[in-house]
Specification:
heterodimer, A: alpha/beta, four-stranded antiparallel sheet, B: 2 domains, about 20% strand
């Protein structure tokens, strides 16, 4: 399988001197296109910090994040922003949809940031709403949607820019168990493909069944990578 | 960039409550600033009404004169001395004083009387009706048709009245550029009749109006008049002197300045606070945009656009409201002094830009500090 991201010796600490807290310590791993990789572990284990470093959000204190042979953290601030815009799609835990924009306008945001004309961006966003089954809700504000629907809008927004790395932060945290499983199943069936790697941070064991591989973090250290139940599929 | 600005626009105007509060704050501030400065402009302009209406290029006066109404009469020899200055084409006396007019209704009305040089009538107003030559007729006066005209019971040509126990008759109705400040009607007559009809001190020449041979001669004339112990000022210098008196030697300037500052602070407080709350409420969303891939400068543009749009909309509404109020006030009160000038508008515009700049500066600082990682951490 082709490598999507290669993390090499990533470390991150916060604070200095006696107040220094080691969040992630010397973590190395590879994520591949076409796989759904879970990062799991208890609260405070460094999952979100690790996810932030490989997605161009948080600069590591040590180590590299190699994408197509280049360390993304050697790029300028604008270069990193371009990397996030063009290569990464985010589904935040609280979705972070814009309540003053319509659903379709929310989905169009990455396209607008990519300098697409407004009408063209909205047309394309409509196609992604179709994929997540919310075309008929396009003109509603997100606050009028259920939690599961908002999650799907956030997914549509994340994939609208055609990223090859899709990041989910605790995707089921705000959903009931059934809806959470449906969402992850939907992502597995409809969003994952050979040109895309999906990394999910979660401690919801009910959705482990959809993982290709599961990375276990503890106290900022990678404790191991196991094949998920879905690995053979 | 257009798409980003459209997002900024929708985030702003779709938050109707905050957008309305922002508009009200800026509109109110602009309205107050424009009203205050317009009233001040109107008062200053009217305080120089005689200077503007007479129109002489150079005015000779006692150096202690601060306003055109408070003239200090000069001895006759000054007129002869000024006429003999090299560079003076001609010089004529002007009488300026107050009198009481008894109307046919039996009521008394204070008036300003301007006595024009008998030989030249230099500084005469433009007549709406009547003939200027009739001013030489017995008891003749020309009445200015301005906001105060009605206080003389709207006289017509031929209307008679008493002025300081002399007969007076209206021989012309005149129009002038600007009404006076003190709300009294203005009568024009000849210099000789004015000094005859109105009790005076030993000296009667309030001002000497000078026509220089050229603009270049004015500094020399001013210098020579200074040697006589008097002061020669160009029309603009005299207007500036009167304005300075009202600005700095009365409480008027200070009060208007204080009110303008208070208006600015009120506008800044309402708009700044509301805009700050708006930014705080949207801070996570700006962080999300940053995480998605928006660059810092794009977020700065969004905030500047939101602040500028609100400021300009509020500016337009504030100026419009002030214009409506002044227009309505003039319909009811013809002597209402306020006037909106380009300077007032420019001043209010600068104040609004300052409000927008301060408000957006606070927002920009907040937004640039938010890290996408904070969005992940929740």
């Amino acid at each position: 399988m082709e490598t999507a991201v290669n993390a090499q010796g990533l470390s991150k600490w916060f604070g200095e001197g006696e107040a220094r807290t080691m969040a992630v310590r010397d973590v190395s791993f590879e994520a591949y296109l076409g796989e759904m990789l879970y990062i799991v572990g208890p609260s405070g284990s460094g999952k979100t910090t690790l996810l932030s470093m490989i997605s161009g959000i948080l600069r590591p204190n040590a180590g590299k994040v190699m994408v197509e042979g280049s360390d993304i953290w050697s790029l300028s601030n604008d270069g990193i922003a371009e990397f996030r815009l063009n290569r990464v799609g985010f589904v935040f835990q609280d979705y972070h949809l814009f309540p003053r924009l319509t659903t379709v306008e929310n989905v169009a945001i990455p396209l607008i940031l990519k300098k697409k004309a407004w009408s063209e961006a909205v047309d394309v966003a409509m196609q992604y709403l179709e994929i997540v089954g919310l075309r008929e809700r396009a003109d509603l504000p997100p606050v009028k949607l259920s939690g599961g629907e908002q999650q799907r809008v956030a997914i549509a927004r994340a994939i609208a820019g055609k990223p090859d790395l899709l990041i989910f932060d605790e995707p089921t945290a705000s959903l009931d168990g059934d809806t959470g499983r449906k969402i992850v199943s939907f992502v597995k069936e409809n969003i994952l493909n050979e040109q895309r790697c999906i990394i999910i941070v979660t401690h919801d064991s009910r959705i482990y069944e959809y993982a290709d591989r599961i990375m276990k973090m503890e106290d900022g250290v990678l404790k191991g990578i196991a094949n998920g139940a879905n690995h053979e599929k | 960039m257009k798409g980003i600005l459209k997002i900024a626009f929708k985030l702003l105007v779709n938050d109707k409550g905050k957008f309305a509060a922002l508009l009200v704050g800026i509109t109110f501030a602009v309205f107050l600033i424009v009203m205050m400065t317009s009233m001040f402009s109107g008062i200053l302009k009217r305080s120089s009404a005689t200077v503007l209406n007479v129109g002489a290029k150079v005015w000779v006066m006692d150096p202690a004169v601060n306003t055109v109404a408070n003239s200090i009469p000069m001895p006759d020899y000054v007129l002869d001395a000024v006429r003999s200055i090299d560079g003076v084409k001609y010089a004529v006396p002007l009488y300026s004083g107050g009198a009481q007019v008894k109307l046919s209704s039996g009521l008394y009305q204070s008036v300003t009387v301007l006595g024009l040089d008998d030989a030249t009538l230099y500084g005469r107003p433009r007549l709406l009706s009547g003939n200027m030559e009739d001013i030489y007729a017995e008891n003749a006066f020309v009445v200015v048709k301005d906001a105060e005209f009605r206080k003389l019971d709207n006289p017509k040509i031929g209307t008679e009245f008493d002025i300081n126990d002399h007969k007076g008759v209206v021989v012309g109705i005149a129009k002038v550029t600007t009404s006076g400040l003190f709300g009294v009607p203005t009568l024009y007559t000849t210099y000789s009749r004015a000094v005859t009809y109105i009790p005076s001190t030993r000296f009667t020449t309030a001002y000497i109006l000078v026509e220089p041979k050229s603009e270049a001669a004015i500094p020399h004339i001013e210098n020579e008049v200074r040697k006589l112990g008097y002061q020669a000022l160009t029309k603009d210098e005299f207007i500036a002197k009167i304005s300075d008196f009202y600005k700095y030697q009365t409480g008027l300037g200070t009060n208007v300045m204080l009110m303008t500052i208070i208006s600015f602070i009120v506008g800044l407080s309402i708009s700044g606070q509301t805009f700050y709350t708006f930014i705080l409420e949207n801070l996570e969303k700006f962080g999300a945009l940053k995480a998605i891939g928006s660059k810092g400068r794009e977020l700065v543009f969004m905030i500047l656009f939101q602040a500028s749009f609100t400021a300009l909309a509020g500016y337009g509404l504030g100026v419009g409201l002030a214009t409506v109020i002044i227009t309505l006030a003039r319909l009811r009160l013809p002597s209402y002094a306020a006037q909106i000038t380009y300077l007032n508008l420019g001043f209010a515009f600068v104040m609004v830009l300052v409000i927008a700049a301060i408000s957006s500066y606070i927002g920009v600082r907040k937004v640039l500090r938010i890290e996408p990682f904070d969005i992940f951490r929740g």
